[in-house]
Amino acid sequence: xxxxxxxxxxxxxxxxxxxxxxxxxxxxxxxxxxxxxxxxxxxxxxxxxxxxxxxxxxxxxxxxxxxxxxxxxxxxxxxxxxxxxxxxxxxxxxxxxxxxxxxxxxxxxxxxxxxxxxxxxxxxxxxxxxxxxxxxxxxxxxxxxxxxxxxxxxxxxxxxxxxxxxxxxxxxxxxxxxxxxxxxxxxxxxxxxxxxxxxxxxxxxxxxxxxxxxxxxxxxxxxxxxxxxxxxxxxxxxxxxxxxxxxxxxxxxxxxxxxxxxxxxxxxxxxxxxxxxxxxxxxxxxxxxxxxxxxxxxxxxxxxxxxxxxxxxxxxxxxxxxxxxxxxxxxxxxxxxxx
Length: 339
Fold this sequence. Notes:
Blueprint: H1 35-45, H2 52-66, H3 76-85, H4 90-106, H5 108-111, H6 120-125, E1 128-130, E2 140-144, H7 156-170, H8 174-179, E3 181-186, H9 192-195, H10 200-212, E4 218-224, H11 229-237, H12 243-246, E5 249-253, H13 256-262, H14 282-290, H15 292-299, H16 318-338
Parallel strand pairs: 2-3, 3-4, 4-5
Antiparallel strand pairs: 1-2
């Protein structure tokens, strides 16, 4: 692992470029977007190809000026993820980048030794996978199935690690950066005992990462087969959701026709009333596991400096954990009531 705080490396699978004459060894970014996606990025994300490198350099300058000890990768391709996720608003992109590092540093149970081979049991269980076909908007569908998790086998943080690595792999694609993703969560068979593992502390951490700490555009969250207990789960989640994200949750129950209005049957597996064959987890598992070297190469750029100062990071720690633990005690009656 390099100790350079302004690491200039990036995954070779993500083309990267900079014309900065002062950093001649920085990987060169080459746009891989189709003409249609270039137009979509311009219309939806305010991304102007002729200004792209100028915008990246502006964000890089802000990082070096305001957060010199952040220990982040400064490659164009890496910084572009954050600009696209915040529609090229420099200040919001910078805050997202800082949040990204804060999340990684404040939850060691999730981010230490983070690599695909370390979460192989989760992948083999089928807890999380990515459907092989894109939806009509060009978005990947991430399928999460909590019923595949046996709590006695490993803690819930292993599931979160698997989801995070899945997102890291997906976001390497510029198409995903522009189009975003869709989540399909199947809550079939989720019991009270299993739901109790997802308390407010874990909920706040996960929602914080997905909303404010990761450069991905979540366009829809489709929930199916949710039992009565989901009312309690959603009661835990909702206080941490921004209105924009909360409005992208769709609860379908057992109504597959309702699900098909959001995700067409042609890309869904038979298990969800689709025509794309049986749900296959092996293809995604093999892709993610084969990407370990690339992901570790990316992660090696993210250094935790010894001289990080508290004002560089978002507020987190014992006080938040205690507050969430207190909230959990208040939420448990709701879970039992809904169950």
